[in-house]
Amino acid sequence: MEYAKKERIGNPDLFIGRKTEMEYFLKWIDEIKKMNSQSSAILARRKMGKTAMMERLFNITFHKNNGVIPFYYEVREEKMWVVDFCREFFLDFIYQYVAFKTRKTEYLQMGRKATYKDAINVVREEKLEYLEDVIQGVSNLADESEGLLWSFVRDIPKSVAEGRDEFIVQFIDEFQFLNSMIYYDKEMTRLKDDTASPYLSTAESKVAPLLVSGSWVGWLRTIIGRMTARFVYEPLPNLSENEAYEMIFKYSQILDIPVTEEVAYLMSSLVEGSPFYISSIMRSRYPGKDLTTINGLLETIEFETLDDQGRIKFTWMEYITGAFPRINDRNTKNIVLYLCKNRDREVTRKEIMDDLKLDMTDSELELKLKALVKNDIILQGQTNFRYRGVKDNIFDKVFRGIYQDEIENFDIKDIKTEYEQSLKGWKRKYKRLQGKYNYQKGYFAEFAIYNQLNIHGLEKNTLLKSITRYLPEDFSFCEYTSVWRYDCSPEYSQRFNIDILARAKDPSDYTIIGEVKCRDAKKFSTDEVLAFETKYIKLKNAEKIERTIGFIFSRCGFTEEAEALCREKGFACSEDERWL
């Protein structure tokens, strides 16, 4: 797939997981053409992958060119005069619309710096003259009526879709900043704190629905709370266990950071699949970072959560400093710690009041708790009378590390001890799994083969060839540009994935397309060979790869019929555990 919009994640291969969420939203986008999709809000804290997912959804929708026009806008955390904001928002839409219609991706980057005159010239040149009156109308309104400008501009995507009998999906990232960063006056002294309110009606559109996101979950909920009937909430959870492993191993390869199978398991378990925590640990600036040992993992996590240079601590500080200037007292800190200790259940205000012996009224306590909820320091329970701590076993350690001097009977060494105890518990579980699966199951086995090809392919060429049957005479293991699992792009109606795609750097060398099976008993069958052949051909065609070899690793071996079929099809085979 070609990426029309440059994604901030950097290397597109770093986008990992979110398969369930991507499939849901791709279907949601497709349903726009049937006018069945309701505006939705993605709720998750910072660095959980919201922006990456929205940018990928934009690129897939743009690439598919299948009747839905994507528009992406990020509300930045910087002050803007409403006139400048409206110009930027509007021209971003116009240029993205023109890019989609003409398939000229260079227009995607031009809207933010363009003028209304520039836009008129572009739509004339591209024979999209029906946009000229719209552009001129916005230009005139900017000069004559600042008050009406946003109300008019906000509805442009919907108006264009309705007027042209088209469908548009609007991705608006960091939606909550609409009410805190847009100002009535050019000097930016009068905050326009109702910028999001007009979306009460716009969000009802079925031809141009919105997918909005926000890193301040409580704040975003407050803003769109009275639009509940217009928006569907879509929380973004942590990664599943296998997606967390995939992320760790993928980052290990791309960032060239060695990670052992044991450390990968312990890291994923300790951070509960949080993509932010995994990324922070893998990218940590800790000078002694070593993710091949348990002690190295422990030291890296301690640095990330307790040191001022740690990304995990720094990010949580943004939330904490957002809340505590207004409610910074000892009672508030004790409330947060109390909820952290009881985060496995909801707690009532009465319990908090009684257990902490707070000297305040119920109304005063409620105000404190609401402020903490709005700033994502705690969570609202099922009712307004119930609350709970953040479902995260890292946050309370960061919080205690920050306020250690103000908390009685607290020693920062306690946090290190807790990490050690957690890792010991997960290590015992890993050892039990290790005995059951003998190190060679699922992602761990695939990762072992990835490493053989990516790191040792050239140096172990003779060995790997000797333990692999049916290789072409001119075959040699070579240098590969990438080695990883292949998941077909979601725009394909029939999804498929292949365990290994090792792309040869030199087109004259063989690219390897492989299947890995690490079962304890069942041999690879003829049906599985035929199923692999179907995926093998699909991948070759989808990626336009000419020189390839199919490879099947089956730890339990092959049936006689499957072995003969592999030889006939020219698929290389091995069950030799030296691959692992």
Notes on the structure:
This protein is an alpha/beta fold and 580 residues long. It folds into four domains: 12-235, 3-Layer(aba) Sandwich (Rossmann fold); 241-309 and 414-435; 323-406, Arc Repressor Mutant, subunit A (Orthogonal Bundle); 442-579, Trna Endonuclease, Chain: A, domain 1 (3-Layer(aba) Sandwich), CATH 3.40.1350. Helices cover 48% and strands 12% of the residues. It is built from 23 helices and 15 strands. The chain has helices at 19-31, 50-64, 82-102, 116-125, 132-144, 146-154, 156-164, 199-202, 217-224, 241-254, 261-270, 275-282, 294-306, 311-327, 330-341, 349-356, 362-374, 395-402, 413-437, 442-456, 461-466, 526-543, 560-569; strands at 40-43, 69-74, 80-81, 168-173, 182-183, 210-214, 232-235, 347-348, 378-380, 386-389, 480-487, 497-504, 511-517, 548-554, 572-574. The strands form four sheets. A five-stranded parallel β-sheet has the order 2-4-6-1-7, sandwiched between helices. A five-stranded mixed β-sheet has the order 11-12-13-14-15, with helices on both faces. Strand 14, helix 23 (560-569) and strand 15 (572-574) form a beta-alpha-beta unit. Helix 3 runs parallel beside helix 4 (116-125), helix 3 (82-102) packs parallel to helix 6 (146-154) and helix 10 packs across helix 11. The longest helix has 25 residues, at 413-437. The mean pLDDT is 87.
How many separate structural domains? 4
In CATH terms, the superfamily of the largest domain is P-loop containing nucleotide triphosphate hydrolases
Distance between the termini: 32 Å
Strand order of the largest sheet: 2-4-6-1-7
Computed structural class: alpha/beta
CATH topology of the largest domain: Rossmann fold
Main sheet properties: 5 strands, parallel
Report the C-alpha radius of gyration, rounded: 27 Å
Q: Which spans of ≥5 residues are poorly predicted at pLDDT below 50? A: none
Number of helices: 23
